[in-house]
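[Meeting: bench + compute handoff]

Bench side (C.D.) handed over the final construct sequence. Compute side (W.E.) agreed to return the predicted structure before the next meeting so the bench team could plan truncations. Sequence as handed over:
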Amino acid sequence: MLDSTINPIEPFKPSELILREDGSVYHLGVRGDHLADTIIVVGDPDRVAIISAYFDEVRFKVSGREFTIHTGKLNGLELSVVSTGIGVDNIDIVVNELDAAVNIDPITRKVRTGELRKLRILRLGTSGSLHESAGIGSFVGSEYALGMEGLPFHYQNRFEDDEVELARLFTNFSSWPDELARPYAVKSGTGLKAQFGSDIVSGITLTANGFYGPQGRALRLPPASEDYHDRIRDFKYKDIPLTNFEMECAGLYALGAMLGHDVYTICVILADRTGKKFHPSPSSAITGLIKMVLHRLTS
């Protein structure tokens, strides 16, 4: 996806850029000086402190609602950790407000002059696998994300040719129902991705707009399609398989790219959706992902 930003001459109105009294953005409670250029995002607010416990120092903390933020240093690299809560709707808040905090002056309410800050945003998530290459406990890097919730269509967007092709091929392959939001595809950034090696499974991640029915789970409510997984499991694009389900990646990739930031997602597989199995020790799997990522970011 290509940068779609605009730089209005007029200041942003108070109803559009909502700031707290100290100039911090409304939901996250941060200003640009609170944030590092490298940001790890996680869903669970409790996971922020787990990650920052590895830091050599923590200089800033704030928490409200599902959003918790710690900024500190590890091996000389400044890092921020931000919790998003669950779902692409929260990603819409987090990415827009991170960008506003670093690239909009809270006093003039205008886009900052000169070179804007380009953030490196790395999402660490948990996920369910759809493909044999992504076994329980493996780390999956999202080469592409397929979104099911339609977030980028609420913005003026510019998809790249391969993204348009991937979305079209998946829509046709899966016989996507007309009554659902049209799938879109977005590829990852390149900078962060280059720091992670071949031991990470590379795949296409399907970003669902829910945990149960939208991912084909059935408790007391039957899903609309009983053969949902069978229809999508074997999909590939340029020999890259559809590896896993989660709930944030596509929104992060879309908004991150449109705002000119470098974005990447790595998930640890906790659920085998084909074999109906779940990781026996999810906390140890998540800890392994955190340690691997911090080592590669700072070594």
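W.E. noted at the follow-up: The chain has one domain: 32-298. C.D. will use this when planning the next construct.
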